[in-house]
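Tip: read the tokens left to right.
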């Protein structure tokens, strides 16, 4: 058979189309570390099409939570939460 392992969707980095950035009215972006914010800021979002930006947690760690709160406060973004995690549902 071979040693080929299927590529996970996490491993594939698909380009975000400029058209999608112009048409969407919101962006939900997963954040766990500062590099995640840098990736979001690097998107080519035209100012005239600026969507509402929601930061979604990758974890419930205190460090990641502080980062999200800092960024949404500074940039007038919003926090998205995964309520199922508070109930222990995965």
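Filled-in amino acids:
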């Amino acid at each position: 058979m071979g040693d080929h392992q299927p590529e996970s969707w996490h491993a594939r980095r698909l380009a975000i189309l400029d058209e999608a950035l112009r048409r969407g009215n919101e962006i939900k972006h997963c954040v766990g570390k500062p590099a995640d914010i840098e990736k979001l800021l690097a998107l080519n979002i035209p100012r005239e099409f600026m969507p509402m930006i929601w930061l979604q947690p990758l974890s419930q760690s205190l460090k990641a939570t502080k980062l999200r709160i800092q960024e949404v406060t500074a940039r007038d973004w919003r926090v998205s939460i995964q309520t199922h995690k508070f109930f222990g549902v995965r």
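The chain has a mean pLDDT of 79. The longest strand covers residues 26-31.
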